[in-house]
Amino acid sequence: MKKDNKVLVIGIDGATFHIILPMIERGELPAFKSIMDTGTWAELMSTYPPHTVPAWVSCATGMNPGNLGVYDFRENSHLTYDEGRFVFSTDVKAKPLWTLLSEKNKKVMVVAIPMTNPPVQVNGVMVSPVRVIDPNKVKTYPPELSHELFNELKISSVLKKRMDYMEMHLSRVGSELEIFFDTVVSSSRQVIEKLTEAILYLFGKDEYDFSMVMLPIDALQHHLWCFMDKNHPSYNAELAAKYKNIIFEGYKWVDQALEKILNKVNDDTTIILVSDHGFGPLHKIFHPNRWLMERGLLKLKRGRKHSFAGTRIPFGRFLQKMGIGFISRLLPERLNNVRIPAVKRNLKPIPELIDWQQTKAYATSYAININLKGREPEGIVEPGEEYDSLANYIKEELCKAEDPDNGQKIIERVAEKREIYSGPYVEAAPDILLFFKDPKFSIRKDLFSPHLFRQLTPEDRLTGHHTSFPKGICIMKGPHIVPGAVLREPHIMDIAPTVLYLLGGTVPEGMDGRVLTEAMNQEYIESHPITISKYSDVQQKGHSIGDQTLIDEDSEAIKRQLKELGYMG
After folding, report:
1. What is the pTM assigned to this prediction?
2. 319-326 long-range contacts, Cβ below 8 Å, gap at least 24?
3. What is the CATH number of the domain that holds 218?
4. What pLDDT is stored for residue 180 in this prediction?
């Protein structure tokens, strides 16, 4: 193998061929077209759930969540009834690509890949995603790189401005939605531009054997999908006149970034474009906790469901709550952001609202758990026969669930965790997973929804999702890639072993993914046989993150952001 062989993986969060292919036909994505015309491509199956976490973790490790101990943004839902702390890079129980390659003395560059916070020591550089709580700082390895990027590129207030606007205008509707959408659009474009600047800057400083970088299109699609479709229940003709093409514009921004990045790589570089999931419209919400209540499997406590605490809120939000929000539009941003004392009413955390001594099952953010004795904090269902009987009952009843609007069954498949996951950490997975017949459905774990189903309205801000759209993109081009080769149902777990093979041929036996050899020319395969290393080579001792300050600072801000993107109900 040539010493100068290189691999560049470009993650495009949320990219889907459903948008890319029609745009290429219209001549709007020249960089995408160039790579696809001279390489090979196919839809890429994601993890379940097809969310940022665990998908990007499986991409970087080649393992399914049962081998990683990471299933969602939060830790083991059984320990805390799905209300536990958020997971960080040090919770992942397998070595990612950048660690494996660093151990082989390969030079690596990692930029903005999810679940790289806190950054780890690598043979090269790592830039974590911008922290929500403190966007004026970027966590990096080596640590001094943070100041260098901040000073050179002014990676600072892009995300902060967006979060300030979202906080101030969180519940505004009607014409005020325009402020929110404008902020999503402007911040999304700036994030793509700043990430591109950082990538180009780092490419200009050094050469790398392996690079993995991120360009996000996710937020635009979450919030603005409805304006592309007149049949969407959240379609607003007045706002659509302004935003109907904005997602297409977002893909053009990514295409322009691709062109700039690809101009920095040489002919010995294999390019892999990958997304963590697809995307599509969200029309209707199913509330499984209400469904469980209707069957007597979940009981709520009596008493108040809200708590009250002192806080400080932006003056602009105060005006909005008083019903005179229009005044905030006449004031300077500085005054709107001044925080004033207020009393905040909060819905109590779900574990405090449920009567666990009378509850046999409960919904997480994407699945259903059984309140198992000896596992859950207040479990009452006995292991063995009672557990099995209850699981079968829930599965059978879910398959009978019907959409009241048309009488159609809503569930295509219900599976238990061992049907989906494998590995030493399967017990941490949710017990029962459900798959919708209609991909326009998703679930929320709300306890107080008045209806089992809720159709979206023009006031909703989250109108696109990926819970039921698991197929993302995989595009490959390089000196050993056969143009037009047929990829055999590639999975996101196949990316890591494929990269390792291209950069040396050794793949740990513990990886669930496979090398995508069908994409490569026969001469290369014959001259570079795959070698298998020990399973222990890919294991990483799982441990909790030690930086409690980081957890305390970030968790609430991350929670708000995930709610805005639809990951949490």
Report:
1. 0.89
2. 320/168, 320/169, 320/171, 320/172, 320/176, 325/172, 325/176
3. 3.40.720.10
4. 83
Q: For the chain, count helices (H), then strands (E).
A: 21, 21
* pLDDT at res. 5: 86
The tally of domains found in the chain comes to 3
Contact status, residue 339 vs residue 315, Cβ threshold 8 Å: yes
Are both 199 and 325 inside the same structural domain? no
Is 569 domain-assigned? no
pLDDT single digits (tens) 128-149:
986 544 545 678 999 999 888 8
User: In angstroms, rounded to a whole number, what is the distance separating the alpha carbons of residues 395 and 413?
Assistant: 9
In a domain, 463, yes or no: no
> Do 92 and 202 belong to one domain?
yes
502-529 confidence digits (pLDDT tens): 998 789 988 999 999 999 999 999 999 9
Q: Assign 5 to helix, strand or coil.
A: coil
Residue range 446-462: average pLDDT?
92
Question: Quick one: which of 31, 35, 2, 209 has its CA closest to 108?
Answer: 209
Same domain, 131 and 153: yes
| Average pLDDT for the chain | 87
Residues 193, 367: Cα–Cα separation, whole Å:
36
The Cβ of residue 154 has, within 10 Å, a number of other Cβ atoms equal to 11
Residues 135 and 250 in one domain: yes
**Token duo for residue 423:** 């590995």
**Comparing C-alpha atoms, which of 80, 568, 82, 560 is closest to residue 364?**
82
Same domain? 440 vs 326: no
Confidence of residue 547 (pLDDT cuts 50, 70, 90): very low
DSSP for 499-531 reads HHHHTTSEEETT-SS---GGGB-HHHHHHS--E
Q: Is residue 460 part of a domain?
A: no
Q: Are residues 291 and 271 in the same domain?
A: no
**Looking up tokens 């080769």, which residue turns up?**
485
Q: Residue 473 is part of which domain span?
A: 6-281+468-564
Cβ(314)–Cβ(168) under 8 Å?
yes
Last residue of a domain, one of 293, 324, 347: 347
Shared-domain flag, residues 108 and 163: yes
Helices (H), 89-156: 97-103, 145-153
Do 330 and 368 sit in the same domain of this protein? no
- Whether residue 566 contacts residue 465, with contact meaning beta carbons closer than 8 Å, is answered with yes
| pLDDT for residue 549 is more than 60 | no
The residue out of 409, 428, 455 marking a domain boundary is: 455
Q: Is the pLDDT of residue 3 over 60?
A: no
- Collapse the DSSP code of 280 into the 3-class scheme (helix H, G, I; strand E, B; otherwise coil) and give the result: strand
How confident is residue 535, by pLDDT bands cut at 50, 70 and 90?
Answer: low
